[in-house]
Design brief:
alpha+beta, 2 domains, Beta-Lactamase, 57% helix, 268 residues, five-stranded antiparallel beta sheet
């Protein structure tokens, strides 16, 4: 209801201002050649100009800016998290139902954790846009490895998996940002809005990484192990330190993933 009222008011203001524009043009034609000082002495003409400026600055100036923000908040910043949560729990239950004895603990942990990554990827697409996202769970501070992975192309295995199998120190040698985080864990998300910023000194393995990693978010959700969640996007400034709602969501997803690995500890 409020949205409809605002639309009607903006359209009415716009129509009135368009009318004033044409009316002022006709008036100026009538007084063509008359000195501006003499023209403005006509009180009714001065009043028209005053009303025109007031509307331009008011409803179609400040007011339109407020209207635009309102629309953005209602339609572009609202995330349909309910459906994504339902999908997440349905997929999680499917994983649990598919478990056979004897239980492979590690496979179960990774499969359950991947459902949280899929959930996050869906939220990213809604909140930030249909970009390319890669979500990885890193573990093992001595020889870092990706233990769970998902990206926007529905891949569940990272490109670097073969290199890591050959060389346990692959991620260390290529100076992945997450390596330092695993060695010195912090509880707050680490956001790199522009990886190409020279001051950041972000290390890229190849041109493919440089193309697909424009911004990065890292979050150590388990300091004891440690384990860290890494999210990358092929759009610069996709992540922001000021976006507290999203960082809270990432933190919550991290706790969910940690819970899946805690389950593995009680499975014999």
């Amino acid at each position: 209801m409020l949205f409809a009222i605002i639309i009607v008011l903006v359209i009415a203001c716009a129509a009135f201002e368009i009318y004033l524009i044409f009316d002022l043009i006709d008036t100026m034609k009538t007084y063509r050649g008359v000195p501006i000082t003499e023209t403005l002495t006509k009180s009714w003409l001065f009043l028209k100009i005053l009303i025109f400026i007031s509307i331009a600055i008011g409803p179609l100036g400040y007011g339109f800016g407020t209207f635009r923000k309102f629309v953005a908040k209602e339609f572009t910043e609202r995330i349909n998290i309910e459906d994504s949560l339902k999908d997440y729990f349905h997929r999680r239950f499917s994983v649990l139902r598919s478990v056979n004895n004897p239980i492979n603990r590690e496979t179960l942990q990774h499969d359950l954790s991947r459902q949280a990554l899929i959930f996050l990827e869906q939220i990213l697409c809604e909140a930030i846009g249909m970009n390319h996202y890669e979500l990885s769970v890193f573990s093992n501070k001595d020889h870092p490895e990706i233990i769970c992975y998902f990206d926007s192309n529905k891949n569940e295995t990272p490109r670097s998996s073969q290199e890591r199998k050959i060389d346990p120190d692959y991620y260390k040698k290529h100076k992945y940002e997450v390596v330092d985080l695993l060695l010195s864990p912090v509880t707050k998300p680490v956001v790199i809005s522009r990886t190409e910023d020279p001051s950041v000194q972000y290390s890229f393995v190849d041109d493919h990484q440089k193309r697909f990693i424009k911004s990065t978010l890292l979050y150590c959700f388990d300091i004891d192990s440690p384990r860290a969640l890494v999210i990358t996007c092929d759009r610069a400034q996709a992540f922001s330190k000021e976006d507290h709602n999203f960082t809270k969501l990432v933190a919550a997803a991290g706790l969910a993933i940690r819970g899946e690995y805690e389950i593995g500890r009680i499975i014999m």
